[in-house]
Amino acid sequence: MDKIYRILKHMEIFRTVKKETLQYIAQKGVVKNLKNDSIIYLDGENINKIYLVLDGKVIISKSSKFGEEKIIYIMEKEKFINEECIDNKSTSTSLKVMKEATLIVLCKEDVLFLMENDFNFNLLIINSMSSKLRRAYRQILNLGLKKINNRIASKIWKLGRDHGYEIEGNVHIDLDLSKSQIASMVGCTRESVSRFLTKIENEGIISQSNQKIRILDMKKLEKYNE
Amino acid sequence: MDKIYRILKHMEIFRTVKKETLQYIAQKGVVKNLKNDSIIYLDGENINKIYLVLDGKVIISKSSKFGEEKIIYIMEKEKFINEECIDNKSTSTSLKVMKEATLIVLCKEDVLFLMENDFNFNLLIINSMSSKLRRAYRQILNLGLKKINNRIASKIWKLGRDHGYEIEGNVHIDLDLSKSQIASMVGCTRESVSRFLTKIENEGIISQSNQKIRILDMKKLEKYNE
């Protein structure tokens, strides 16, 4: 418990909350270490749990009744997940592990207790929802208006910004990404992704090997993205 | 002020909040009566206001930098709008009036004061965001996976459910809807909407006149929607 408390205390998001709030989370929260592809919950389940990512990466997605999957977000450290369950409805997305993840699992009741007793913690939950709403609106705009190639370019560019590290001017995306996963993020076919990535590889904008993408020219990629 | 207090007191969403909360809203809120097509705010503005719809209908949309518009939600009575501004960022959508609307405008600071002093009011804000997130996720799934005709069918069906009234087994959608507006909700061209509506009119599923749509067969429409 002391170890978890120390981890929480060093998290940027928690700098304004009460000491007692972090002690409560460390005491009540259950820490889970999860392997790649573990499914944490499925869309429509009655899960009254709220998750906080301590490490690794998880995928929030939604599936059609025919089983097709649309990836909505990739979430990492310091992000809350499933806080929308506070409204007492079932989950509206599925959650699975992309890259070995450590999560703290909290009961909804404990989160409600903290929200009521620490207004700054309450604001963290509100801000987490605001941020998800803003991202969802941008995605709706892109899906509704942009052409498929622009959407793929836009997604690769954002993955570079959010999950990239730079080496000698190139941005390495720190994720193992199959073409199907990119297709599921963009909402298009695997073939469209394959075709477009080959095209921009030939143009010297990216390079690909073993599910890893390196962006060689962020500016040119950004142009496609408009 | 007494009149507003009485209106608020009869609203379903407020049945769990404190009497003082409603008195505070009635005292601090500014009531605005707005005509069709009035623009309340634009995407990217610094508006520290939160709105509550008392009557009428408003459109939440987002625009690309080329000025193309994607309608995200049509909102009506008892809905909060722009509560995501609690995170201190600029607006992430535009808001305009669809059908003469009466809104209460509250400063963000007043909403924060109420959230801190009435936990049930705080939960209303959380529930409002949850509901928007759930709707946004469904929209992302539909935009990402469904074919355009299915998306149009799905949108007409939902408009019937949310804004329809029944006369002799037919569902009249209580909105003046141009083809361009439907296109902007669905994220497709005006021509696609026109073509598909004519098709399902010929199939006896809907009838159209003067921007009004009547659904003659909800079941058949639902089949298109899958």
TrEMBL record, chains A, B:
<keyword id="KW-0805">Transcription regulation</keyword>
<dbReference type="InterPro" id="IPR036388">
    <property type="entry name" value="WH-like_DNA-bd_sf"/>
</dbReference>
<keyword id="KW-0238">DNA-binding</keyword>
<dbReference type="GO" id="GO:0003677">
    <property type="term" value="F:DNA binding"/>
</dbReference>
<feature type="domain" description="Cyclic nucleotide-binding">
    <location>
        <begin position="13"/>
        <end position="83"/>
    </location>
</feature>
<protein>
    <submittedName>
        <fullName>cAMP receptor protein</fullName>
    </submittedName>
</protein>
<dbReference type="InterPro" id="IPR000595">
    <property type="entry name" value="cNMP-bd_dom"/>
</dbReference>
<keyword id="KW-0804">Transcription</keyword>
<feature type="domain" description="HTH crp-type">
    <location>
        <begin position="146"/>
        <end position="219"/>
    </location>
</feature>
<keyword id="KW-0675">Receptor</keyword>
<dbReference type="GO" id="GO:0003700">
    <property type="term" value="F:DNA-binding transcription factor activity"/>
</dbReference>
<dbReference type="Pfam" id="PF00027">
    <property type="entry name" value="cNMP_binding"/>
</dbReference>
<dbReference type="GO" id="GO:0005829">
    <property type="term" value="C:cytosol"/>
</dbReference>
<dbReference type="InterPro" id="IPR050397">
    <property type="entry name" value="Env_Response_Regulators"/>
</dbReference>
<dbReference type="Pfam" id="PF13545">
    <property type="entry name" value="HTH_Crp_2"/>
</dbReference>
<dbReference type="InterPro" id="IPR036390">
    <property type="entry name" value="WH_DNA-bd_sf"/>
</dbReference>
<dbReference type="InterPro" id="IPR014710">
    <property type="entry name" value="RmlC-like_jellyroll"/>
</dbReference>
<dbReference type="InterPro" id="IPR012318">
    <property type="entry name" value="HTH_CRP"/>
</dbReference>
<dbReference type="InterPro" id="IPR018490">
    <property type="entry name" value="cNMP-bd_dom_sf"/>
</dbReference>
